[in-house]
């Protein structure tokens, strides 16, 4: 049986921190779905379609990564695609309490799906999409935080 994992998130936009988790997860699982939660209560900078295109571009050299989006419960989506695992990144101890709550609820909803945590590379432990957007909005240097195509997309968004 193939091991299939979901790496969920908003990825608004995808950062080198996300890519670190995705690429490391892809070494462990046969297939990794990078899946964008289509959350109507949030006001993202990029549309779901734009985020899918950006993620596809920056993961094109990782052959076992697929990019998708979903709405609703993560465990329902995971079951739908045949995933038996969820990959979550941890940056700091402050992430742990929230992640533990999510994992406990997911386990309550479907005890067959395991959650695996990957500690981010230390150089990305401070990094979040929100911080990247804020720095980009004020024309700060984000070249070491996101891939070039993402940097260009952010610059285009903030010029309009």
From TrEMBL:
Enzyme class: transferase
Enzyme Commission number(s): 2.7.7.3
Cofactor or coenzyme needed: Mg(2+)
GO cellular component, one term: cytoplasm
Residue stretches making up the Cytidyltransferase-like domain: 6-134
Binding-site positions, ATP: 10-11, 18, 89-91, 99, 124-130
Key words, A-Z: ATP-binding, Coenzyme A biosynthesis, Cytoplasm, Magnesium, Nucleotide-binding, Nucleotidyltransferase, Transferase
Family matches, as Pfam families: CTP_transf_like (PF01467)
Reaction equation(s) it catalyzes: (R)-4'-phosphopantetheine + ATP + H(+) = 3'-dephospho-CoA + diphosphate
One Gene Ontology molecular-function label: ATP binding
Binding sites annotated in the UniProt record for substrate: 10, 42, 74, 88
InterPro entries the UniProt entry points to: Cyt_trans-like, PPAT, Rossmann-like_a/b/a_fold
Residues the UniProt record annotates as site (Transition state stabilizer): 18
Entry similarity comment: Belongs to the bacterial CoaD family.
Binding partners and assembly: Homohexamer.
NCBIfam families on file: coaD_prev_kdtB (TIGR01510), cyt_tran_rel (TIGR00125)
Protein name per the record: Phosphopantetheine adenylyltransferase
Organism: Robertmurraya siralis
Lineage: Bacteria, Bacillati, Bacillota, Bacilli, Bacillales
Gene this protein is translated from: coaD
């Amino acid at each position: 049986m193939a091991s299939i994992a979901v790496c969920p998130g908003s990825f608004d936009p995808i950062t080198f921190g996300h890519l670190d988790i995705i690429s490391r997860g892809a070494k462990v699982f046969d297939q990794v779905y990078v899946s964008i939660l289509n959350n109507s209560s949030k006001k993202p900078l990029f549309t779901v379609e734009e985020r899918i295109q950006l993620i596809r571009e920056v993961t094109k050299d990782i052959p076992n990564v697929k990019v998708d989006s979903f709405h609703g419960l993560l465990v329902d989506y995971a079951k739908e695609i045949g995933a038996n695992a969820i990959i979550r990144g941890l940056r700091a101890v402050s992430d742990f309490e929230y992640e533990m709550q999510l994992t406990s609820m997911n386990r309550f909803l479907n005890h067959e799906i395991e959650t695996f945590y990957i500690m981010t590379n230390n150089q990305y432990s401070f990094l979040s999409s929100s911080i990247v957007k804020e720095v980009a909005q004020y024309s700060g240097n984000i070249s070491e935080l996101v891939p070039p195509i993402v940097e260009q997309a952010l610059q285009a968004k903030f010029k309009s």
